[in-house]
Amino acid sequence: MFRQITEAHLDDLHCRYDEASGLQSVIAIHSTRRGPALGGCRIIPYASSEEAITDAIRLARGMSYKAALAGLDLGGGKAVIMEPEGDYDRKALFQAFGRFLNELGGRYATAMDSGTTVMDMDTIATQSAHVTCTSSCGSPAPYTAEGVYYGILASLKAHPDLPESLKGVRVAVQGLGNVGYALCRRLHNDGALLTVTDIDHQRVEQCRKEFGARVVAPEDIYSAPCDVFSPCGLGGILNSETIDQLNCAAIAGSANNQLLTEQDGYSLFNRNILYAPDYLINSGGLIFVAMNYLRHSDSEMQRKLKNISDTLLQIFSRQNQTGLPASVIADQMAEAMVYGHEQTKLSA
Fold this sequence. Notes:
Blueprint: H1 2-7, E1 12-18, E2 23-31, E3 37-44, H2 49-69, E4 75-82, H3 90-102, E5 108-112, H4 118-125, H5 141-158, E6 170-174, H6 178-189, E7 193-197, H7 201-211, E8 214-215, E9 228-231, E10 250-251, H8 262-270, E11 274-275, H9 278-281, H10 284-293, H11 298-322, H12 326-339
Parallel strand pairs: 3-4, 3-5, 6-7, 6-9, 7-8, 9-10, 10-11
Antiparallel strand pairs: 1-2, 2-4
Helix pairs in contact: 2-12, 3-4, 5-6, 5-10, 5-11, 10-11
């Protein structure tokens, strides 16, 4: 555990067990250098406490990088709850988590994540002020989609073989959840030609009827001819097996942890496929959550969302200058901002 903490440059790790509710939770605070840590709270059936700790640490670091490149005065953290086996009192569980949150004195604020709902955030809010994504706030999904939309426009602008307008541009969208579906609507309105896939046949059929989308099987989305491939589902989908199948010029989507390994970023670069680093292009949801938590204006939020495009263009420019993949450059820029290795200032 301590080796993981050291390697991840984690500030601190907090664990809490509450016998009455069955709460077993871990909160990882990666960094508060730029401000209080903000990150989601997820609840899934972890196989072990070690697995939960590893997940919290990995995700907390990603949140620090995401907040930094999004130009937010926040650090990164993550909370995980080991879902109890069998029946349990969900309300009591999240009330106990809210009390745990208070013990950190505002160094970490939480939000919705995998397995948690707006109702869970409302329950936490009965015990703690250090929470957002409550019912008074709304869903971050449309804002994540908006950020990806701006990221796709930046990718078109940066790629020498693609038009700057979306009209007639072929976009293959993998995953039609709340973000993927909202993105399809935005792209369709701008004249993009959509190819879609999802295991939810109802969503697929809805996109076919509403947007005139071409439908392919999930296993065929990688080889589908397109200008932009937009992964909006599971992570780890860019790997040694799928990269060779890709038939696109650029990748720009909302899925987290799209690259299975760091080497996969180099593989995309060697194939001349422009890659928009996932934790930057999908930061619209975090921007929405942060702006609501910090009580900033809608105009400030829109400015931050549009800055996703500007930051991506900086990364693509550095890729051309240095010969390093965009994934590596994004990490370097984020690390410089989080750890202060150099004075790096992004437009904000």
